């Protein structure tokens, strides 16, 4: 039985209890949310791999995924494992292995063996790698790749099942500037056009559900038509795919298979809320997973920042799962330092969202209030402890220490110390005046 099936039957298992304790929610309430598909807990039923389950969706803290993986230009599995561990150290709740270079089965197995958070993959990459050309892979190659990944212990898989003939027709008429930027989306569209055939993952979605249910693998319903530049945002191909994804969410729930839905990449800030609300409504409040959105195209090398801006707006509108974007997005395969920087910025976005999100709000506000109290008291050790990156915070302050107990920005002109001193005098004078008046 799958976790969703158990929850529909009211069975509160270990994964539910663990996530409920971590999130501060009643296990029975969490069980009902999973049963309805409003919360997803990606966890393969493979008994050979133990992970810490993570809840994604309503009433849950905003989670972050980090992408790692080899390319055909750089094949170093140990470097990708180090990136994954770095991402987890800096708050990643999930890791996706997007490897396309080297022995993909071996790279994936190494990551699965080393990482204790949920791990996701895109099996279509594997299927394409096994064929002479992308367009020459078979539908059997595609489904066999999904089964192989599931059998290895992967917790969630991205499948671009929302692309069908209608979607491709919309794409051809759309006037897009960048066509398809999703790698899995491009594989799918190219295969469909070359073979003059329907997308196997859409046409045989019931078979896909059968595989997923057998291993209790969560389906991440991919956004193959996501806009790759501001010009292409919120267009017909994007919305056509979302409409199909809404249909697939209901079919997945009927088959007791957990899902979350992936969303667009490049969107101007005034369109983000509308896009998120449309996706949430159309996809029946399934957990929503976004890369960004990236809010401008002119910042290569800084897309961790353009993404964090979009993530914060999207999160406040209802996004549950953020994909970390590194500074090297659009430029190069990320380094370990890129992963660290991307995670730090995305953590800030996720926490900002939790400050206004039903469920995590109380815990998030408590942390900010503790930081405010520590700042007022110039309690530096507590400030470091509460920081997104304590080591970095300490390093910055100690790089230019003040001769006073304050920081070197103000020194003895510290606004809080000046006002605190005068407020204390004012309070003392008021008490003395009150005492004289009573006499």
- Put simply, the count of helices is 19
Unreliable residue stretches: none
| Strand line-up in the sheet with most strands | 3-4-5-6-7-8-9-10
Q: How far apart are the first and last residues' alpha carbons, in Å?
A: 80 Å
Overall shape: it is elongated
Helix content class: 40-55%
Q: Could you say which structural class the secondary elements and strand pairing correspond to? A: alpha/beta
Write down how many β-strands occur, each being a DSSP E stretch of 2 or more residues: 10
Major β-sheet profile: 8 strands, parallel, barrel
- Report strand %: 5-15%
Structure description:
This protein is an alpha/beta fold. Helices cover 53% and strands 8% of the residues. The protein has 19 helices and ten strands. It has an eight-stranded parallel beta barrel, surrounded by seven helices. A two-stranded antiparallel ribbon has the order 1-2. Helix 13 links the parallel strand 8 and strand 9. Helix 2 packs across helix 3, helix 4 runs parallel beside helix 5 and helix 17 crosses helix 18. The longest helix is centred in the C-terminal third of the chain and has 24 residues. The protein is elongated and about 95 Å long. The chain starts with a helix and ends with a helix. The mean pLDDT is 95.
Descriptors:
single chain; 439 residues; alpha/beta; 8-stranded parallel β-barrel; 8% strand
């Amino acid at each position: 039985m799958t976790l969703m099936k158990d929850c529909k039957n009211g069975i509160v298992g270990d994964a539910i209890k663990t996530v409920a304790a971590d999130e501060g929610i009643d296990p029975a309430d969490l069980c009902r949310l999973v049963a309805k598909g409003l919360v997803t807990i990606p966890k393969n039923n493979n008994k050979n791999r133990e992970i810490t389950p993570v809840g994604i969706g309503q009433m849950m803290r905003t989670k972050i995924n980090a992408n790692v993986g080899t390319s055909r230009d750089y094949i170093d599995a140990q470097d990708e494992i180090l990136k994954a561990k770095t991402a987890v150290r800096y708050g990643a709740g999930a890791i996706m292995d997007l490897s396309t270079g080297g022995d993909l089965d071996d790279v994936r197995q190494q990551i699965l063996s080393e990482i204790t958070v949920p791990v996701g993959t895109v099996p279509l990459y594997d299927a394409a790698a096994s064929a002479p050309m992308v367009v020459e892979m078979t539908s059997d190659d595609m489904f066999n790749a999904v089964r192989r990944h599931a059998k290895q212990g992967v917790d969630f898989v991205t499948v671009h099942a929302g692309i069908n003939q209608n979607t491709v027709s919309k794409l051809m008429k759309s006037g897009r500037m960048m066509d398809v930027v999703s790698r899995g989306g491009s594989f799918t569209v190219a295969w469909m056009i070359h073979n003059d055939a329907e997308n196997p993952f859409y046409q045989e979605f019931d078979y896909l559900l059968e595989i997923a249910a057998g291993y209790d693998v969560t389906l991440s319903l991919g956004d193959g038509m996501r806009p790759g530049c501001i010009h292409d945002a919120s267009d017909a191909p994007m919305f056509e795919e979302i409409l199909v994804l809404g249909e697939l969410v209901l079919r997945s729930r009927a088959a007791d298979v957990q899902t979350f839905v992936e969303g667009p990449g490049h969107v101007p800030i005034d369109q983000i809320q509308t896009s998120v609300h449309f996706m949430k409504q159309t996809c029946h409040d399934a957990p929503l997973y976004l890369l960004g959105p990236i809010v401008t195209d002119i910042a290569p090398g800084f897309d961790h920042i353009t993404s964090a801006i979009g993530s914060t707006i999207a999160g406040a509108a209802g996004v549950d799962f953020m994909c970390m974007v590194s500074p090297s997005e659009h430029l190069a395969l990320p380094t370990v330092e890129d992963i660290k920087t991307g995670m730090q910025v995305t953590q800030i976005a996720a926490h900002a969202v939790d400050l206004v999100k039903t469920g995590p709000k109380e815990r998030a506000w408590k942390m900010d209030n503790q930081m405010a109290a520590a700042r007022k008291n110039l309690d530096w050790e507590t400030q470091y402890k509460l920081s997104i990156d304590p080591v970095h915070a300490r390093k910055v302050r100690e790089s230019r220490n003040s001769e006073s107990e304050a920081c070197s920005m103000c020194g003895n002109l510290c606004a809080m110390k000046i006002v605190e001193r005068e407020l204390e005098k004012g309070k003392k004078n008021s008490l003395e005046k009150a005492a004289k008046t009573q006499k």
